[in-house]
């Protein structure tokens, strides 16, 4: 859910991210992970954007991950293989405060190889920075603040000043999702209007994805119990091919 919210913001407000991370509002377009490899590794938190002369690689993390340094090194090589003329800016953005040393790791070292990347810990960033750009407003509550509830109110007020209602709805939805890392639901929905949020495309997309995942989990439970594939397909609304694919994944799991 947090990955989806961050991905939506980065892809739809890329100029705001460029202003923040690159220092200028460069127009960026999305790159599909498959363009860097036929077998992309863990693409759920991966965001790739490019301009005429560079690639911006973003990874949003809610918790420390020891595999991050290698992943950054690996994708730098993939980016170079795709286009040797483009530079690549790689940034890992940690959303939730932690005392782990892993969030301070900014390099990958292997024998004579050393690769460096940037790390941003949102809780160390001034929250007023995010309020300057529409696409960054949802991060304000995760920034450096002594009063997250007050900051969320500031974010809500900033969103209300945006004239486009669809943009308002999407920013309210993503703000609510990300605020869940720091505040209780009751506080969030007291500040952010749920009725507007539910009209947003990002909210509906995440909701639909959750329902789809739930159907797949139910189908996998039925498969474990030995139910016929045709019956599972009828009961869950999945196609026979989708159920067969899930069955194949389950059969392959022990081998992996």
How is this structure best described in words?
The structure is a single chain. This protein has helices spanning 2-12, 14-21, 68-82, 127-130, 148-160, 165-179, 185-191, 194-197, 201-224, 229-236, 240-252, and strands at 29-30, 46-50, 54-61, 87-94, 107-110, 113-116, 118-121. It is α/β, with parallel strands linked by helices and 256 residues long. The chain has a 5-stranded mixed β-sheet with strand order 1-2-3-4-7, with helices on both faces. It has a two-stranded antiparallel sheet with strand order 5-6. Helix 5 (148-160) runs antiparallel to helix 6 and helix 9 (201-224) crosses helix 11. The longest helix is centred in the last third of the chain and has 24 residues, at 201-224. The chain starts with a helix and ends with a helix. The mean pLDDT is 87.
Features:
48% helix, 256 residues, alpha/beta, 11 helices, two-stranded antiparallel ribbon, 14% strand
Uncertain parts: none
Strand content: 5-15%
Number of helices: 11
Calculate the mean pLDDT score and round it: 87
For the biggest β-sheet, the strand order reads: 1-2-3-4-7
Q: What structural class should be given to the helix and strand makeup?
A: alpha/beta
Biggest β-sheet description: 5 strands, mixed
CA(first)-CA(last) distance: 26 Å
Sketch the topology as an H/E string, one letter per element.
HHEEEHEEEEHHHHHHHH
């Amino acid at each position: 859910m947090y990955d989806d919210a961050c991905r939506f913001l980065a892809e739809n407000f890329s100029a705001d991210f460029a202003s923040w991370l690159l220092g200028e509002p460069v127009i960026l377009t999305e790159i599909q992970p498959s363009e860097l490899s036929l077998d992309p590794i863990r693409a759920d938190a991966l965001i790739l954007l490019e301009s005429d002369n560079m690639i911006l690689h973003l990874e949003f993390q809610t918790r420390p991950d020891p595999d991050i340094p290698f992943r950054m090194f690996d994708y730098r090589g993939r980016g170079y293989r795709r286009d040797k003329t483009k530079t690549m800016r790689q940034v890992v953005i940690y959303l939730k405060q932690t005392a782990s040393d892993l969030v301070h790791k900014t390099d990958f070292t292997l024998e004579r190889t050393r690769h460096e990347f940037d790390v941003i810990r949102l809780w160390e960033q001034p929250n007023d920075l995010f309020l300057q750009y529409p696409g960054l407003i949802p991060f304000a509550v995760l920034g450096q603040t002594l009063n997250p509830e007050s900051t969320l109110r500031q974010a809500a007020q900033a969103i209300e000043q945006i004239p486009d209602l669809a943009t308002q709805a999407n920013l309210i939805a993503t703000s609510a999702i990300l605020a869940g890392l720091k505040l209780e639901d009751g506080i969030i929905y007291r500040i952010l209007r749920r009725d507007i949020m539910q009209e947003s495309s990002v909210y509906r997309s995440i909701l639909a994805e959750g329902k789809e995942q739930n159907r797949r989990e139910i189908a996998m439970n039925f498969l474990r119990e030995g139910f016929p594939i045709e019956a599972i397909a009828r009961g869950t609304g999945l196609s026979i091919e989708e159920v067969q694919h899930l069955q194949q994944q389950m059969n392959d799991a022990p081998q992996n």
